[in-house]
Amino acid sequence: MNSILQIKNLTKYYGKTLGVKDINLELDKGEIFGFIGPNGAGKSTTIRSVLNLINKTSGEVLFEGKTLDKNDTDAKSQIGYLPSEINLYDDLTVKQMLDLHEKFFDKDISQRRKELTDRLKLDETKKTEELSLGNLKKLGIVLAFMHEPKLLILDEPTSGLDPIIQQEFFNLLTEEKQKGTTVFYSTHILSEISKICDRVGIIKSGRLLKVEPVKELIDKSLSYVTVSSKHCDEIIKDLNIEPTAAENNTVIFKNTSDADTLVKTLAKYRIDKLYIEQASLEDIFLHYYEQEG
Amino acid sequence: MLKRELKVNFKGYLIWSGVTILMFLVVFLIYPSIINGPEADSINEMMKMFPPELLKSFNMDLASIDSAYGWLKSEGFVFILLIIGCYAGILGSNILLKEESDKTIEYLGVMPIKRTSIVLQKSLAGVVYIIGITAAVGVFNFIGLDLSGDFDKKQYIFLSLTPLLSCVPVFFVCMFLSAFAHKTKKMLGISLGLVILSYVFNTLSSLSENTEYLKYFSVFTLADIRNVIINISVNPLMIFISLFIDTLFLCMTIIRYNKKELV
């Protein structure tokens, strides 16, 4: 079995308000899975449901093939979580917070702790309430990573980090991936997805719109096509598309069908000019959002 | 976790114990001048003017306030029960809920620890501090009484234990109620209201036969101070009921907390 986390038909309602509906996902061991969507799309609801911080209305979450129960301490010790907003015990210093964290785990994690605090240049003498947003995030990263979990769940992990620490963080993620750690990476920053993620899931209004390898999503799914031909009207009808611009026998449209279908359709007509431009991840993301209304 | 809870609540414990002890320190300092002064007779005369039911409700029919111990047996323990009751109520309503109010539950909730264990360890810390404040006030008053003159030591020891019978249940009831809330502010009012209402019921229940039934709605009935003063013993039934309420509400809190949405 290669999957470490399975989310099956996850639905969450807050009273009558929909949080997420019928989320189905499977995360493979050692992959970095990007989970993207704007604020309020249901990213945090999904994560909190997975972690059993909130109750699922229906559905199931499996960790290594076993139902992930809120009282399953073995499974919980294999998961590292970095929330988008970090709230820790204000009365403790960074050192005391890390000491407390160590005590929750049965194994010796002091070596990894030292490696991470050195690497992220974390000052252990300060009280957590005195930490800047960036330093608090660094502490959150150390807390999520230091017990060497099999699954890392990261919610908006780079917010507040300066570019140097951000790069260090991405290096850290790459090393974790090489070690076989699975990462569930929730963000609304598209460049991060294309930079480090293997697959991406797009969520909107509580529904998972698409799950695809990042490379495939960029390569195949969407292109901008400009066609100059006397048969523009027929081409539009044939491809069943809505052009984004049309004038003087030239149409520009978004193509979501595969290249083979596009070329075979266009081959039926005389084409004067043809430009096919690859869409960026931003365009793809916006396309899915517009398409789903 | 237990160690952390003890540390977090230590400051509150010191403040509540300190203020209570300070109050009794003032009593021990000024009481000799009152009972030896010219007003002593007029106070006793004034007491005779009160209806017997009212005197009974404050145990003044059993103890004269012409000595520090007499005052402690009657009015003194009213304050002790109320103060420790309020402390237990606030502690009970805060001890679980503070994690949610401070949003630290998002950290604690994903740690490899069972929710039942969270409730048990926090409960234990709470009970330790209720015993702690009862012991601190009890020991301080023992020393104060010893310096003030002669008193029935056995009766006093039993009396000083009585707050545990009513205040530990207050702690568990408030902790259970807090398992339905998400904000500490709201719960603070509810828990203090509950303690005061419970005390009022207990006082009203001894005023007349018509209101006697109210004692069944008050946890302060469990303190059973009158019985301790008269018989110099603690009614085992009260201990049993107190422990039963503690266990019942602890179990209900565990069940509820395991189902609760934490964020």
Which features would summarize this protein structure in a list?
heterodimer; A: alpha/beta; Rossmann fold; Alpha-Beta Plaits; 2 domains; six-stranded mixed beta sheet; four-stranded antiparallel beta sheet; B: mainly alpha; 12 helices; 76% helix
Give an account of the 3D structure.
- The complex is a heterodimer of chains A (293) and B (263).
- By secondary structure, chain A is an alpha/beta fold.
- Chain A is 35% helix and 29% strand.
- In chain A, helix 4 packs antiparallel against helix 5 (133-145).
- The model of chain A has no long low-confidence stretch (mean pLDDT 89).
- By secondary structure, chain B is mainly alpha-helical.
- The radius of gyration of chain B is 20 Å and the shape is elongated.
- The model of chain B has no long low-confidence stretch (mean pLDDT 86).
- Chains A and B meet through helix 2 of A and helix 7 of B.
Summarize the structure.
The complex is a heterodimer of chains A (293) and B (263). With 293 residues, chain A is of the alpha/beta class.
Helix and strand arrangement:
The complex is a heterodimer of chains A (about 290) and B (about 260).
Chain A lengths: L2 E12 L2 E12 L3 E5 L6 H8 L7 E6 L2 E2 L5 H4 L2 E4 L11 H10 L6 H10 L13 H13 L5 E5 L7 H17 L2 E6 L2 H7 L2 E6 L2 E7 H8 L1 E6 L3 H8 L5 E3 L2 E6 L3 H8 L6 E6 L2 H11 L2
Helix pairs in contact in A: 4-5
Chain B lengths: L1 H7 L1 H26 L3 H11 L2 H6 L10 H28 L1 H5 L3 H4 L6 H34 L4 H26 L5 H22 L19 H7 L4 H24 L4
Helix pairs in contact in B: 1-8, 2-5, 2-8, 5-8, 5-9, 5-10, 8-9, 8-12, 9-10, 9-12
Based on CA inertia axes, which overall geometry of chain A fits?
elongated
- Give the number of helices of chain A: 11
**Biggest sheet descriptor of chain B:** none
Arithmetic mean of pLDDT of chain B: 86
Q: How many beta-strand runs of chain B?
A: 0
Number of strands of chain A: 14
